[in-house]
Structures are given as structure tokens and as C-alpha cells.
Amino acid sequence: MVDEIPFPPQIEKAKPLCLLGHGITDIEIHFLQIKFTAIGVYLDPEIVGHLQQWKNKSGEELAKDDDFFEALISAPGEKFLRIVVIKEIKGSQYGVQLESAVRDRLVDVDQYEEEEEEALEKVVEFFQSKYFKKDSAITFHFPATSPTAEIVFTAEGKEDSKITVENANVVKMIQKWYLGGTRGVSPTTISSLANTLATKLSK
């Protein structure tokens, strides 16, 4: 459970993926915490094998180590993010947040070209017409075999809608938005992931 929202401990994709991190996105306004989404990060447990150089580090150390999260994102292995809406917003608002986060990261590394702009525009358009009611979900599936992302939006009483992102640079930056260490959108998720992986790496 993340903030009273159930997250299964395991999901079946190409392989069984385990819930290794969870958290929320929130904002504090006048000392009031407003929660927007709950997040679950599902990874192939074998990913730990690619992170051995961080063996015996504490969760606290890993959470501050952006190189660790860079290695996690680059490591071969399936990744799956499940985002559940707590506070309803328009899909267009989420799309704009995603767009600016991804674009800024691409500009930083000089990878924001026409192809990236087009791929990002399609994602923004996909969210444009959606309405994120409480308990609706967005999932991002990053397969192990190709640098793509399948985004699915699920809302009660509606058919799932999905889009595939095929631009590898955009896909990487979407992962960085959620899994990017100190620059990740949800510090609670990064901290949870760091603690779980620290425990697995100490075995």
C-alpha cells in the first residue's frame, strides 16, 4: 500500500517484476501537504547484478548518488512504473509537466533535436484529452529488449489508451524524470528505491 493505494508486490511482464520502490509526488502550500500521485517502481530483480560497485553502501548514500541512478537506468532489464492519481488534474497539466521535465533534461545534454521534439509532442497530445480522476493510473513500461516506452492510461469505465514512444533519448529522460536520483520528481520514491537496493546489495 502506498498512501492507502494498493500496489501489488509483483507484476508479470516479459518476466516477473518486483516492487522495489514507492513514494508520492506532492507539494506543500502554506504548510499544507497536497498529494498528487502515488508511484510504484517495478524492476527485474536481476538488475542488482549490474550495480555491484555500490555494494555495502547505505540507502542514504545511494539516494544522494546520481551516478548510481544513472547506472540503474542504463542497466539492462525490464522496468515498469505505475503512477496512481490521488488528486485529480487534467491530463494536459500532467503532459506539460512531463514535457518540460524531459525537454530540460534533453537540452542539458544537447540532445533536443527535431526528432525528440516530435516524439515529445505526441506524448503531450496523448495526455491532452485525458482527465485524471482519483484512482486512474498511468503506467510506463520500458522493455529490456528495445529502447522504447509504452505508456498506458487506465480510468474506470473506459478502455485503456496507449502510446509507444520510440525515440530512445526521450525514453531515457522519462525514466530520469522518475528515477533520476536527486533530480527525480519524487524524493520519497528515490529514497525508498535506494533503501531497498542497498539492502539487496548488502546480501
Give a description of the structure.
Helix 3 packs across helix 5. Strands 1-2-3-4-7-8-9 form a seven-stranded antiparallel sheet. The protein has a two-stranded antiparallel ribbon with strand order 5-6. The model has no long low-confidence stretch (mean pLDDT 96). The radius of gyration is 16 Å and the shape is globular. The longest helix is centred in the middle third of the chain and has 18 residues. With 203 residues, the protein is an alpha+beta fold. A hairpin with a 6-residue loop joins strand 8 and strand 9.
Summarize the structure.
The chain is of the alpha+beta class. Helices cover 36% and strands 28% of the residues. It has a seven-stranded antiparallel beta sheet.
User: Judging from the principal axes of the Cα atoms, what is the shape?
Assistant: globular
Give the strand content.
25-35%
Average pLDDT across residues? 96
Topology, number of strands: 9
Q: Return the string of H and E elements.
A: EEEHHEEHHEEEEHH
- Helix/strand/pairing category: alpha+beta
What Rg, in angstroms, do the CA atoms define?
Answer: 16 Å
- Number of helix segments? 6
Q: Mind summarizing the main beta sheet?
A: 7 strands, antiparallel
Terminus-to-terminus distance: 25 Å
Strand order of the largest sheet: 1-2-3-4-7-8-9
In the predicted model, the low-confidence regions spanning at least 5 consecutive residues are none
Could you estimate the helical fraction of the residues in percent? 25-40%
